[in-house]
């Protein structure tokens, strides 16, 4: 499986892009555990709004990857619109910093590379078996 290693610089650029677009339009940030938390924390600091443990009506909801769309479906009716940081293989139209369905497996800068490679292999194996 193709692996793409994201840098802290790319992450910081994503945070800045989202923050510039949404400054003054949201009152809090929510990120579903685990993948959404790093981006949610960074945006909370950058926008100077609270990080919340469940979405509020004024929350921005962020996550790392849209893959199957299951997490996305949990928040589909939420306003303001969802802002996802990275999009991978989902055919859904979502707001994102990166739109690339052929990006492969994303390895975020805070992840252990060896563990990410094992996760990618396990994921690919489960997909091939239809799980």
- Radius of gyration over C-alpha positions, nearest whole angstrom: 15 Å
State the low-pLDDT regions, or none: none
Number of helices: 4
The major pleated sheet works out as:
3 strands, parallel
| Rounded mean pLDDT score | 80
Top-tier CATH class: Alpha Beta
The percentage of residues in β strands lies in 15-25%
How many domain units? Answer: 1
Name the strands of the widest sheet in spatial order. Answer: 4-5-6
Number of strands: 7
Structural class: alpha/beta
The name of the CATH architecture is 3-Layer(aba) Sandwich
Topology-level CATH name:
Rossmann fold
Calculate the terminal CA-CA distance, rounded to whole Å. Answer: 18 Å
The H/E string reads EHEHEEHEEEH
Give structural notes.
It is a single chain. With 131 residues, the chain is an alpha/beta fold. The chain has one domain (3-128): Rossmann fold, CATH 3.40.50. The chain has helices spanning 8-22, 37-47, 70-74, 113-128, and strands at 3-5, 28-30, 59-61, 65-66, 83-87, 95-99, 105-107. The chain has a three-stranded parallel beta sheet with strand order 4-5-6. It has a two-stranded parallel ribbon with strand order 1-7. Strand 2 (28-30), helix 2 (37-47) and strand 3 form a beta-alpha-beta unit. Helix 1 (8-22) packs across helix 2. The longest helix has 16 residues, at 113-128. The radius of gyration is 15 Å and the shape is globular. The mean pLDDT is 80.
């Amino acid at each position: 499986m193709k692996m793409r290693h994201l840098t802290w610089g790319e992450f910081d650029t994503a945070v800045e892009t989202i923050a510039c677009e949404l400054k003054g339009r949201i009152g809090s940030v929510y990120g579903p555990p685990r993948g959404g938390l790093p981006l949610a924390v960074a945006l909370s600091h950058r926008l100077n709004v609270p990080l919340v443990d469940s979405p509020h009506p004024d929350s921005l909801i962020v996550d790392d990857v849209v893959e199957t769309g299951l997490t996305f479906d949990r928040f589909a009716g939420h306003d303001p619109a969802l802002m996802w940081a990275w999009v991978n293989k989902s055919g859904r139209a979502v707001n994102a910093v990166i739109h690339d369905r052929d990006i492969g497996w994303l390895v975020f800068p805070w992840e252990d590379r060896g563990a990410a490679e094992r996760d990618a292999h396990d994921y690919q194996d489960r997909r091939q078996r239809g799980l």
